[in-house]
Amino acid sequence: MDRVLVFDTTLRDGEQSPGATMNIEEKLEIARQLDRLGVDIIEAGFPISSPGDHEAVRLISEELRRPAICALTHAQKEAIDRAWDAVKGAARPRLHVFLSSSDIHLAYQLRKGREEVLEQAREAVALAKSYCEDIEFSPMDSTRSEPKFVYQILQAVIEAGATTVNLPDTVGYTTPEEYASFLKGILANVPNIGKAIISVHCHDDLGLAVANSLAGVQAGARQVECTINGIGERAGNASMEEFVMALRTRKDFYNLETGIDTRQIHSASRLVSDLTGIVVQPNKAIVGANAFAHESGIHQDGVLKERLTYEIMDAASIGLTSNKLVMGKHSGRHAFKKHLDDLGYQLDDEKLARAFLAFKQLADKKKDVTERDIEALMADEIRTAHETYHLELVQVSCGDHNLPTATVKLLDPQGETLADAALGTGPVDAVYRAINRLVGVPNNLIEFSVKSVTEGIDAMGEVTIRIESGGHVYIGRGASTDIIVASAKAYVNALNKLVAVRGTVQAST
Ligand code: KIV
Ligand code: ZN
Q: What is the CATH number of domain 390-501?
């Protein structure tokens, strides 16, 4: 088989990135984009870990009918039952059972011997198989395990019904050559390995996750586990876009393909970054802002004469457009909708009306509205959490001889206008203090970043913040041609998420 199955774990391992927690609506939106990308399997969550994860897996299973939907589970009855309950409505359900196999994990975490672990793995897979045909098993920390023990476990779980066996490099420790020979050892020493698909799952602690995954498929694996933008536990997982584009661009070398529609990569990257608040570094391969930018004169000259001189991939192949001018203030609703369709946004009538209004307001301030502006606007207007508080007005006075002062008006859930003012060390601080006086939910601002969406003095600014409250991190985003307004929107956005999770709205004081 020269086709590699793409197993996306953005919603499970990706969500384990510090501070990347997503709500159910956000997970559904990402799952829909993964479907458009053409991934073969979506790992939608770990149902035993929380009621929210269970619900997200259940809803994704019910809605998406093409890809297989996978639920992760410990090798224990309660977790398997919970995982099955969440995923059973899927057209193609999969249960993914994991249990550690390394001596380090057995001694310090499980406090069990190998025989006991072997038996637990066998029994867990047999139970999962009694519910579901498609079963994956992962011996966690496999690359630091005794290979002979891994052979034994794999043989046992395949006998018990596992159809995919995944070899996680849980701590990102292996190297391409070592991983390839580990997989070749499995092919040579597990007698029934022909009955299962071998899968690779690599973490990026040494920056080798994609290289190890590529070595894995060269050695015979036919499923790769990866995430959009490479997000995931600690340094992250293998990045889907890098793996997929490596196979595509070097088809001459690997002679392998995937079912991914690469033109959806840019949208997927942007969506995951927006919803998790994890900004993509500019020099990131494939999806970084500089990935297709040419700075040196010699390179620019070469690309103008012939793109192939310095470009191994076409930006259009990942769905990156040339940031064309879209429209101005006289453009109509019909043309706006057509542009949204072209950019891959499918909106219901209510969201379309909101987006069109926001577009008109932007076009009033900014002469030329480009595709990047529309993307920022969509992230701002459409992907915001259900609003408890709505920002009505922000007004600041600041300068080098002024005490920064802000006045803010919010609409509360009853439609009442709340207004207050505050002083601060700077204009953003003053705005945030004024909002705090109105909302009254204690939190700490732990990250604040602002970036420009496009070039030019009238460019939109995008603000991403993280706030912490009660041990949880909430991300907020806002975009505007005025960065103080964008900062206020980002803060209200984060507070709305906080309030939604807590289920409380405190009266203003
Ligand atoms: O990295 C890992 O070992 C995992 C397993 C749960 C597959 O994510
Ligand atoms: Zn992992």
A: 3.30.160.270
